[in-house]
Amino acid sequence: xxxxxxxxxxxxxxxxxxxxxxxxxxxxxxxxxxxxxxxxxxxxxxxxxxxxxxxxxxxxxxxxxxxxxxxxxxxxxxxxxxxxxxxxxxxxxxxxxxxxxxxxxxxxxxxxxxxxxxxxxxxxxxxxxxxxxxxxxxxxxxxxxxxxxxxxxxxxxxxxxxxxxxxxxxxxxxxxxxxxxxxxxxxxxxxxxxxxxxxxxxxxxxxxxxxxxxxxxxxxxxxxxxxxxxxxxxxxxxxxxxxxxxxxxxxxxxxxxxxxxxxxxxxxxxxxxxxxxxxxxxxxxxxxxxxxxxxxxxxxxxxxxxxxxxxxxxxxxxxxxxxxxxxxx
Length: 329
Prior knowledge:
This protein is an alpha/beta fold and 329 residues long.
């Protein structure tokens, strides 16, 4: 490419759907799942082909981020307000420090196997034309925990325009989307700073863009609500294209996803930590101590720091309801 490629790793979330293992004082991106290295460290390594790497996080996590990603520059956002404000803020700061470049935005909590660099390169080269680019993944099942992308054309032919972004559907709608050739929205993006900031000026993030230009990021964050980049910018923009991933992908945002990543026993049980199963099947057991499951099936049992979660595996996304109730207590 004729300009630098900057990998931007988002690592400011608290991972509420992996409660009780992931909490504000120990976010999921800083612990290992099925390996010896943290999710953040693996993500930074995956982006080693970039000319520069930045990690965007919250101030409380900055020191820990530097330990897990010592080769990356660290940016701290003024406040936790979802991916929309975070990505706009990072684009502004990276443009100040690097200049004209292409940003490849990566969540820090994904499991990826295969040739990630090839897909990332295709997305980055597409972004050179000045549009916004997202990466879509061919679905392997009608998942209700992911957003979907409707490609306006044959995505196997290369980058194609996005016809529509769809929020997380119910099971019946998810089945229709899979049959219709929709792609999972992986939350991986490519754009130039100028392209994202220009699109954000015509979105609910406009006050933040103005405040950043005036040198008042804190005021900008105070003036806006928490919002995802998809809802705030991508769903409103007219020049958005999608590149189909050439790798296997999973979002490690739920205990069910962790269970898919781990090796399972003959009965389909996945274990993280110390556990015993007796006549149990298709369970996810995770603990920093010890758990036992007897005569049960299709459950998640997670116990960390004196807190225990039990939920049907197919309802693992509902863990956020527990966190919301605890936060409101």
